[in-house]
Design the sequence.
């Protein structure tokens, strides 16, 4: 417990020292550095037992130089508390901005695939990512990304080439490559209604003894509807699928699909949400494995950087005919 308190104090000192630093040269070039510390915890209620889970602690340090280029680094300190340093580093990349909203990114980052998978924990109303975001989307990887925003006033394009190993550094003997792209149309249909449609695709090759090919596709639609000044309705539905292929000719080994939907309503400092998620894992060697998750809850945000969440989550496993239930209280504070 003493180590945990000491870690919190150190993060607070770092955040207070580096936050909003600006360095200006005689040529009026400005370097700005911003630091954010995210503190969170979850109290899980499962089968009449309260359980205090590992505190959720994140640290982000970002900077830019005259809006021409910058960097972003983020750390998940939660695992380090238990002595696991594997997933400590989340993002570590630099970016270069060019005219016409063109950006080049180099480093470790989220692969541009899927919409729900790219929404951070502080921006989404619900607590956990969809099953597809965890099992289908590539997640984070190291490589080069390229993006164009507001092309023709409504088109966004993100693409990249990555090494296909994720954040793992040990398997450097494998010859992998991952190519991914995401295209979205954002239409402002009125002052109060925004519709976004997107499509993503990735292709991955893992060359070990026998090459394995992965093909993933994603399709989503999102609606933001501002009913009044302090009342908003949001809706997201997304379909993901991934195919595993041993032989590029036609030897399909298996496929996975996920369908996710969330509906939320925000009024003043309150957010009410519900989600439904169903996934099927199909393989040539096993029976299809189906499961679905339904959640519901409410968030209270007294301030922009403080959020309290109360949620319920129920999961059903079709093959085992088994249920799991979980309720929790979540607290996030961004410093």
Sequence:
């Amino acid at each position: 417990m003493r180590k945990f308190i000491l870690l919190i104090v150190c993060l607070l000192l770092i955040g207070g020292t580096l936050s909003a630093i600006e360095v200006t040269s005689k040529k009026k070039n400005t370097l700005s550095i911003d630091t954010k510390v995210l503190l969170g915890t979850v109290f899980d209620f499962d089968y009449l037992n309260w359980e205090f889970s590992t505190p959720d602690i994140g640290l982000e340090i970002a900077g830019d130089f005259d809006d021409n280029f910058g960097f972003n680094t983020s750390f998940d300190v939660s695992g380090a508390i238990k002595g696991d340093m594997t997933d400590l580093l989340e993002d570590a990349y630099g970016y270069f901005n060019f005219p016409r909203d063109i950006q080049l990114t180099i480093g470790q980052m989220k692969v541009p695939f899927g919409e729900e998978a790219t929404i951070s924990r502080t921006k989404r109303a619900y607590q956990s990512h969809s099953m597809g975001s965890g099992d289908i989307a590539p997640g984070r990887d190291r490589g080069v990304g390229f993006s164009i925003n507001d092309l023709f006033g409504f088109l966004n394009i993100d693409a990249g080439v990555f090494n296909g190993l994720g954040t793992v550094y040990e398997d450097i003997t494998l010859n992998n490559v991952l190519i991914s792209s995401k295209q979205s149309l954002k239409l402002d249909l009125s002052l109060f209604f925004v519709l976004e449609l997107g499509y993503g695709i990735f292709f991955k090759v893992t060359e070990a003894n026998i090459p394995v090919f992965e093909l993933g596709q994603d399709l989503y639609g999102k609606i933001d509807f501002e009913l009044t000044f302090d009342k908003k309705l949001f809706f997201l539905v997304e379909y993901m699928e991934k195919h595993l292929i041993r032989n590029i000719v036609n030897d399909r080994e298996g496929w996975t699909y996920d369908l996710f939907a969330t509906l939320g309503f925000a009024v003043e400092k309150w957010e009410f949400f519900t989600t439904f998620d169903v996934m099927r894992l199909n393989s040539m060697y096993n029976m299809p494995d189906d499961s679905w998750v339904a959640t519901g809850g409410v968030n209270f945000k007294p301030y922009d950087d403080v959020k309290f969440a109360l949620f319920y989550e129920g999961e059903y496993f079709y093959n085992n005919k088994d249920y799991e239930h979980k309720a929790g209280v979540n607290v996030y504070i961004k410093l």
User: Anything to note?
Assistant: The first strand starts at residue 21 and ends at 24. The chain has a mean pLDDT of 79.
